[in-house]
Design brief:
alpha+beta; 7-stranded antiparallel beta sheet; 11 strands; 23% strand
Amino acid sequence: MASVRVPAFLPSTGGFHFDNRFPRGPVMTIDLGVARIPIGNAANGLCGGMVFAVNDYFLAGLLPPADTTPPAGGTPLFSYLVRRLIDSYQLPAGPATYLALMNPLLPDGDARLGPVTVHGRASRMINREWPAIRAELDAGRLCPLGLVMVTSANPADLGQNHQVLAYGYDLQGTALRLAVYDPNRAGDDTVTIALDLRHPDQPTSVTMTPDASVAGLTCFFRVEYQPPSLPLP
């Protein structure tokens, strides 16, 4: 059995101490001079920003703020989370990746279309994403993950997806369990994502436990972390 953890990181200490539950309100506002235009809705969550910010604090050798309630709109921490949320989108590639993996026409396992093999979600996770995730964790680096939580061709459903931060794994044979910080579960060191790597060509069940914050996980992928361009708040 291989068991790896990024040294000195646990969600209960290195993660934010508040859940990803923000009151309704614009994520950001664009000032046009004659009018201010609200963009987005914080109530949909800032998970990607929280994941990137936690990584920022960890790499800086700092702990996140001790706040146990989400920061209010307009505060330095809220603004920082929004900036990191936008960074986590990795425009335009990020939404395109979610849309491709959400697509109802993409099979869970491999499928044959005449002489062509279409590789499904299982192949993407097992053959492509897992080796990249493992390389990050083996090197002692936290690894953001994009979680595909919905099967839909509607771009409006992008907000139903989620982001978490992997900080370790246990691998016994082909049974993989990823240890993750989930912004929806502040202080919880027990959140894991599990799957079997045995058959990348076949539909593969992915489970997240405790399964109280998200449901419908069908696929995950590595999100490339970008260091912050602005100082921590």
